[in-house]
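Today's session is about reading a structure prediction critically. Students often jump straight to the picture, but the first step is always the sequence itself: look for stretches that repeat, for charged clusters, for runs of hydrophobic residues. Only then move on to the predicted structure, which in these notes is written as discrete structure tokens rather than atom positions. Here is the chain we will use throughout the hour.
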Amino acid sequence: MVKKVLLPQPIEPEAIETLEQAGVDVVTAKDPSPETVRPLLEDVQGIVLRTGITITRELLGSADQLQVISRTGGGLDNVDIEAATEQEVIVTSNLGINTSSVVEHALALMLSLSKQLPLMDRAVRQDDFRIRYKNLPRDLRGKTLGLLGFGRIGSDLARSCRQMFDMQVISYDPFIPESIREQYKGIVEFVEREALFAGCDVLSIHVPLTDDTHHAVGEKELESMKPEAIIINTSRGPVIDQTALYNALNNRKIAGAGLDVFEKEPIPSDDPLLTLDNIIMTPHTAALTWECVVRMAVAAADCVLDVFNGKVPPNIANPQVLELDKWRGLSPTR
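Below is the predicted structure for this chain, in token form.
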């Protein structure tokens, strides 16, 4: 039987070619609404999933033949993993594929805020060349980078800032094992949560969205930060309490913020953050460089093909399914 893979949203041609060259039938939904996607699930064995739809328990009920859901990104917010596991469906993600792109984006936001690039650009356009004498830009060299979360992206950003700008690096991440702490000894100081917010000049957020991290950066944390500090968020919007952030920025309690993610996306047109001049906002594009999008799509396609070919794909979100009789014959991944 020819395998079928559903694309609730289009993916890059390189990934489609990867699937088709493997003899897979590719089914593309005309839109990612549940109403459109539900009937297409009835006879597919794989899904390559972007962010436009959530694969819920209800949708999974229409997918009797489904074997694997492969996310093109690292997040799994839009998959009911518990329901997928109950249905013996393997769920994979692309952890690590977007690391370098997100690190570059975080660095771009840090530099833009530190060097006051939006303000400098507006001044030149308004014939205010004398703004150069106000010495508003700041250096990153020698400053302290604070990392909330020290996974792939956080650790890579730590190395980059240490090497490029000789920044001191502190991090709070209660889940980092002692072996990793030892590996970064002399490069990163792992501190308590309160010390992170109080001690950093730049706070960069790299944690998943969970019940514990929801509004992890709120009024109390912002009040404890230096007035010249800036915040970068390329993880998930609800990690920051946006009302508290607006108040801190509006009252100049902190110097600035660079956000790629928001509590509501797209950000509402009446959101007060849009009125501020000390914030830079991008539309959740940190991992959406051309190169990264192709890498993620092809890797997601490869994960589907791994399962079809009897192999264990990388980054399985529900590894307990491998203990089921259905999947015990899978061989080690490529």
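Discussion point for the tutorial: Residues 99-281 form a domain with the Rossmann fold fold (CATH 3.40.50.720).
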